[in-house]
Each structure stands twice: as structure tokens, then as C-alpha cells.
């Protein structure tokens, strides 16, 4: 465990150094990746991460004070590092605890979690900015007159670090620290996806970033730097069509490239545009992760509404909707349609004699048998209790009658604890201008007649 914490400290120092390399004004970087590492370490390890991060904050402050030759004693440097550590850690710890708690509640869906994370990232990064800048002023590392110009770049840089890199660092830390406080299973289930597609889409992003940033470099006008926002389109496309893991990796890669090109091409005059672009594109793409998830939820809901959970045949709602569509189509194209209503005979007795579980089994067996004898265009639905409806688009009365007779005989072969199951049927063929209510009523009347005659037969 100790080695892992030493690794976290070293990783924190290395990532901090990455942020410093792209510092464009004192204490503010285009993005501040270490904010993302702090947030994810607190998310994965909780308070166990504090020691490594606090040590990192003190080491960095001492190093920085020496580097800028600030007139501070060693004790003052350590105190300043401790204050910086507190200001940097506390808000992110609160934010990470909130996200950790929400992720453990099944009632919070992935889209809700993502939106909350984006809001928490913005708010905690702002609180960290205010606290760290205050600590820098109190410990004489920043002049009060520079606070105004440092505040916004500091905040946006920290926020970019959290939004862009927390998902990626969290994935890595969960892999390294097995007893993590949080699970990303919901997002990592699909893995990375096809490497070929990944290469193509990454290539497109890279080409777009280079093209738009070269444009800004060559034209030298501040307006041209806004072209980077076109990247939101390709990232939204990736978010909606690829796995969340791919989304997060491509986001980190694009942001890193933007940050490097700002420095290589000397686009410092437009740096805030790029800072805002990274935040907006990342927030947009993370929110995009929710789109496929929402689609999946909708399909699940649709399945629940349109399928009977016990027998897995269609639901009443589905049959009524589908029947109206089919009846209209059959009238329009002068195609026949036959509707059948059927009901198990003395089903109450099966329940009473053998119990409800046996009754359920009988309903399931009847549906399996009937379904196996239908074609793709036929529909079977459970209307309620032991009553079912069959719809045969394209079949005339006589053809449907023959098929139903075979279904009736097959149902009569089903044995539930040595009791034979049987069903009665009512059949009606669609007449000119007739609607669903009318044909259903006629089939139901025919079923009534079959029951009156003793059941286990087709009423007409
Ligand atoms: N096991 C089980 N029983 C159900 C379910 N839904 C309804 N039932 C039972 O189905 C029975 C239907 O009873 P009835 O409407 O009197 O029908 P029946 O006994 O088949 O009588 P006839 O239709 O006149 O032959 C009732 O006992 C309900 O409790 C279900 O999902 N599972």
C-alpha cells in the first residue's frame, strides 16, 4: 500500500509539473491537470489520498519559492505549502465525496451523475481558486494588485483540469487501487471499442485542431481562434457513437494537443479562448455520454410497456396500437385480416388445485406453443389474466381457422401436474370499414359461444 501512495505522490508531482510547463501567467495555466488528479484521487481513495497530496503541495511550494527566489524562510515555505494544500484539497474532497455518494445510489442515473459532476467541478474549482489565491496573498507569494488578472485564468484552468482529466485519472486509479470507493462499471462495460474507428476519429480531431490553430497562428486575428469551437461537433459525434472510455481518452488527447499547440505556436494572446474551448467541448462531450444511455433507458422502458413480463408475448397496449395500424393498412390495400380472442378453460381450477406458480407455468407454456406456430407478421398479445389475442394480417377466415385449430390441439397437449390445459377461441375476419373495437367485439362474442358449448373449441 505504501508504494502505491508513494506512486500517487510522484504522479501528483509529475502532473503538477506538466501544468507548470503550460503556465502562461504567474500561478495560472491553460489547464491545470493536477486538479483532475486531486479530484479523482479523493474520489477513488477518499481521505486516504490526503497525505500524498498534502505532501506534494508542500514539496511544490518549497520548490517554487526557491525557484522564484521568494524571501521566505523554510518554515514559512512549509506553512505556505500547508495552506495551499488545504485550499486545494478541501473543496475537491467535499465535491468528490458528494459525487462518490451519488454514484452509490442506484436511483441516480448516469446522466444525472454526469450533470452533477460538471456543476460540482465548476463550483469546487471556483472555491479552490478563491482559497488558493487568498493563501498566496496571505503568504506573500502574490501581490494583491495581481489578484484580479489571476482569478479567471486560474479558475478556468483548474476547471478544465477537473472536467477533462478526472474521468481518465479515475479509471487509472481504480485499476491501481483495488479497494476503490467508487465503481465506473456502468461506463467501462463496453471497453474502448474498435481501434480502427478510434484511430480514424482521433485523426479527424487532430487534423481539425491543427488546422484551426494554424489558421489562428497565420492570420494573427483574435477572431480566428474561435474556430476551435468546431471541435465540439466532432467530440459530440464521438460521445454519441462511441464508448464512454473512448470519449474520455479522445477528450484528454485533444485537450493536451490544444495546450501544446498554444505554447508551440505562441498563441498566448488568444489563450482564454482556448481555455474556454477546452471546458465547453469537454462538458459537452461528457454530457454526450448520457445520450446513448438515455436511448438505452428509453428502449428498456419501451420493452417494458410493449411486452408482457410473465409470458414475453406482446402487451395489450402494443396489440391495440399495432392492430389499428394493420387494420388501416389492410383497408387501404384491400388485404384480409383475421382476429382471434382466446381464453384458457377453467384456469381458476389450475390455480386452485396446483397453485399460482403452476398457473403461471401454464400461461407461459401456452404462449410458447402458440408463438412457435405463428409467422413473423402474426401478433400474439396477452390482454389480461388468461385472455389472449392473435392477429393474422393477410389471412382469410378459413386459413386462420385451420391454423387456430392446430394451436388449439397443441395447447391441449400441455400438461400441468397431470392436468390437461385447454383453451376456447373466438374468430372474426375484418369486414369493410370495420375498426378494431368492432372486430374485437365480434371475436369476443364468438369466444363466448365456444365457452357456452363446453370450451376447447373455436367459436365462429
Ligand atoms: N397464475 C396466474 N393466475 C392468474 C394470472 N392472472 C389472472 N389469473 C387467474 O386467472 C383466473 C381466471 O379466472 P376466470 O376468469 O374465472 O377464468 P376461468 O377459470 O378460466 O374460467 P373460464 O374462462 O370460464 O373457463 C383467476 O383465478 C385469476 O386469479 C396470472 O398472471 N397468473
UniProtKB/TrEMBL annotation:
CDD domains noted in UniProt = GGDEF
What top-tier enzyme class does this entry carry?
transferase
Subcellular location, principal: membrane
The reply to whether Iron figures as a keyword in the UniProt entry is no
Membrane-crossing ranges are 27-45, 50-66, 78-100, 112-134, 154-177, 198-218, 245-266, 272-291
Keyword flag Nucleotide-binding:
no
Q: Which InterPro entries match?
A: Diguanylate_Cyclase, GGDEF_dom, MASE1, Nucleotide_cyclase, Rev_trsase/Diguanyl_cyclase
Entry EC number(s): 2.7.7.65
Keywords of this entry: Cell membrane, Membrane, Transmembrane, Transmembrane helix
Instruction: Please provide, alphabetically and separated by semicolons, the GO molecular function terms listed in this UniProt record.
Output: diguanylate cyclase activity
Q: Name one GO cellular component term.
A: plasma membrane
Q: Which reaction does it catalyse?
A: 2 GTP = 3',3'-c-di-GMP + 2 diphosphate
Q: Which cofactor does it need?
A: Mg(2+)
Which GO BP terms sit in this record? cell adhesion involved in single-species biofilm formation; negative regulation of bacterial-type flagellum-dependent cell motility
Q: Where is the protein localized?
A: Cell membrane
The GGDEF domain covers which part of the protein? 335-460
Q: How does it sit in the membrane?
A: Multi-pass membrane protein
Q: What is this protein called?
A: diguanylate cyclase
Amino acid at each position: 500500500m505504501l508504494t502505491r501512495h508513494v506512486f500517487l505522490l510522484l504522479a501528483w508531482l509529475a502532473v503538477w509539473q506538466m501544468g507548470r510547463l503550460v503556465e502562461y501567467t504567474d500561478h495560472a495555466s491553460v489547464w491545470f491537470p493536477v486538479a483532475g488528479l486531486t479530484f479523482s484521487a479523493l474520489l477513488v481513495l477518499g481521505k486516504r489520498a490526503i497525505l500524498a497530496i498534502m505532501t506534494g503541495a508542500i514539496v511544490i511550494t518549497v520548490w517554487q519559492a526557491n525557484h522564484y527566489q521568494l524571501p521566505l524562510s523554510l518554515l514559512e515555505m512549509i506553512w505556505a505549502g500547508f495552506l495551499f494544500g488545504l485550499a486545494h484539497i478541501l473543496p475537491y474532497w467535499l465535491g468528490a465525496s458528494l459525487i462518490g455518494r451519488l454514484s452509490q445510489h442506484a436511483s441516480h442515473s448516469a446522466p444525472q451523475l454526469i450533470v452533477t459532476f460538471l456543476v460540482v467541478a465548476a463550483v469546487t474549482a471556483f472555491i479552490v481558486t478563491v482559497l488558493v489565491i487568498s493563501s498566496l496573498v496571505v503568504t506573500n507569494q502574490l501581490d494583491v494588485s495581481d489578484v484580479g488578472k489571476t482569478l479567471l485564468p486560474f479558475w478556468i484552468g483548474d476547471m478544465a483540469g477537473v472536467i477533462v482529466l478526472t474521468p481518465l485519472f479515475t479509471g487509472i486509479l481504480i485499476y491501481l487501487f483495488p479497494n476503490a470507493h467508487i465503481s465506473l462499471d456502468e461506463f467501462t462495460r463496453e471497453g474502448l471499442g474498435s481501434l480502427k474507428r478510434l484511430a480514424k476519429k482521433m485523426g479527424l480531431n487532430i487534423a481539425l485542431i491543427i488546422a484551426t490553430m494554424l489558421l489562428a497562428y497565420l492570420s494573427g486575428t483574435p477572431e480566428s481562434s474561435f474556430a476551435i469551437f468546431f471541435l465540439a461537433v466532432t467530440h459530440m459525434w464521438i460521445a454519441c457513437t462511441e464508448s464512454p472510455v473512448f470519449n474520455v481518452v479522445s477528450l484528454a488527447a485533444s485537450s493536451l494537443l490544444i495546450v501544446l499547440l498554444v505554447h508551440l505556436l505562441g498563441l498566448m494572446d488568444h489563450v482564454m479562448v482556448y481555455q474556454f474551448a477546452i471546458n465547453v467541448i469537454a462538458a459537452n462531450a461528457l454530457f454526450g455520454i448520457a445520450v446513448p444511455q438515455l436511448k438505452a433507458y428509453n428502449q428498456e422502458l419501451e420493452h417494458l410497456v410493449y411486452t408482457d413480463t410473465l409470458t414475453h408475448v406482446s402487451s395489450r397496449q402494443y396489440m391495440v396500437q399495432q392492430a389499428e395500424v394493420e387494420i388501416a393498412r389492410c383497408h387501404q390495400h384491400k388485404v384480409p385480416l383475421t382476429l382471434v380472442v382466446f381464453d384458457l378453460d377453467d384456469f381458476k381450477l389450475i390455480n386452485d388445485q396446483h397453485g399460482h406458480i403452476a398457473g403461471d407455468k401454464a400461461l407461459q407454456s401456452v404462449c410458447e406453443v402458440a408463438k412457435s406456430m405463428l409467422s413473423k407478421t402474426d401478433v400474439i398479445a396477452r390482454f389480461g389474466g388468461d385472455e389472449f389475442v392473435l392477429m393474422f394480417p393477410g389471412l382469410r377466415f378459413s386459413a386462420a381457422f385451420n391454423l387456430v385449430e392446430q394451436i388449439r390441439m397443441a395447447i391441449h397437449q400441455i400438461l400441468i401436474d397431470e392436468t390437461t390445459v385447454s383453451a376456447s377461441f373466438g374468430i372474426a375476419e375484418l369486414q369493410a370499414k370495420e375498426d378494431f373495437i368492432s372486430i374485437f367485439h365480434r371475436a369476443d362474442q364468438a369466444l363466448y359461444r365456444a365457452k357456452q358449448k363446453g370450451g376447447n373449441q373455436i367459436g365462429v
